[in-house]
Amino acid sequence: MVSQLPLHPCTGREAAAAKAAGAVPYAGGTDLMVRRAAARRTGQEPPLVFLDRVATFRGITALDGALRIGSLTTMAELCSHPATPGLLGAACATVGSPALRNAATIGGNICTASPAGDSLPALYALDAEVELCGVDTNRRLPIDRLIIAPGQTALKPDELLAAIIVSTDTADRFYYRKVSPRLANALAKVSLAVAATVHDQVLLEMRIAFGAVGPTVIRCSEIERQCRNRSLADLAQSARRLADLAAETIRPIDDLRSSAAYRRTVAGNLLETCLHSLCAPTT
Ligand SMILES: Cc1cc2nc3c(=O)[nH]c(=O)nc-3n(C[C@H](O)[C@H](O)[C@H](O)COP(=O)(O)OP(=O)(O)OC[C@H]3O[C@@H](n4cnc5c(N)ncnc54)[C@H](O)[C@@H]3O)c2cc1C
């Protein structure tokens, strides 16, 4: 019975037990409260379990070669923390508006599992992992195995997202761009997050993730393979061809925010711009 469990728990295990009993996790509430409005009118809203007292879901901690980001970390905290990877900080800075970023958490952004969720392409490009907290056990998954479909995750009924783990020593160049109708409070029509490692004018590795152009974020592994170990000059010359390949790889749809054709064209153009910008000499 959910009513016999603490709905403002202090541990991840207690919070997971409340979720297993039917309570809905509340982090920043920015997504949840919009969606609960309809249920509220019919009086059929399940109870909430508030996560804010769960200390293990908080904070940004340096691990060995990695960063552990508690799921309750807000977008504003990520934007201002000196250890936040540049790519993730750039993506989180585009979420909503300043007021929204003070409440919205990265955990809520992930668990909403929207293809247009702004932190997701960056997390895919960083090869992030997630730490899940259950009643009896914890487990870790790559981010792309957590997000299954629009609005659906692989979380079990008794599991919560505790933290996100990102490596701190992967990429040395990044590119992030969100295309939306206006700068604040607008979801992406298309977004692109790229993390790259360059040494001696050679691109050693590149991870490319598009948002809002498929049911989940789309990684472009074939293009990544074609880019690996190529000189920047050579890569710049192939930028248009690779951009066309990206436009074929994605799976955009027509919806309220945009058309599939627009998304396909813009996604290709974004990758072309990104490749030219990553290949440009640094001062
Ligand atoms: C005006 C407005 C503008 C917005 N603009 C953007 C935007 O530009 N970009 C964008 O990506 N999003 C945007 N959003 C959506 C939303 O603000 C973000 O997705 C936000 O990051 C959600 O975080 P939250 O902490 O508020 O989540 P909540 O609303 O608390 O939760 C969201 C969902 O995740 C679940 N959940 C939360 N935390 C956990 C956890 N630790 N474990 C398991 N489940 C959990 C909740 O049960 C709920 O189903 C906008 C929303 C509004 C209202």
TrEMBL record:
Coiled-coil annotated residue ranges, if any: none
Domain FAD-binding PCMH-type: 1-171
Top-rank lineage group of the source organism: Bacteria
Gene Ontology molecular function, alphabetical: FAD binding; oxidoreductase activity
InterPro entries: CO_DH_flav_C, CO_DH_flav_C_dom_sf, Diverse_Substr_Oxidored, FAD-bd_PCMH, FAD-bd_PCMH-like_sf, FAD-bd_PCMH_sub2, Mopterin_DH_FAD-bd
Pfam families: CO_deh_flav_C (PF03450), FAD_binding_5 (PF00941)
Transmembrane regions: none
Name the record gives this protein: Xanthine dehydrogenase FAD-binding subunit
Organism: Desulfofustis glycolicus DSM 9705
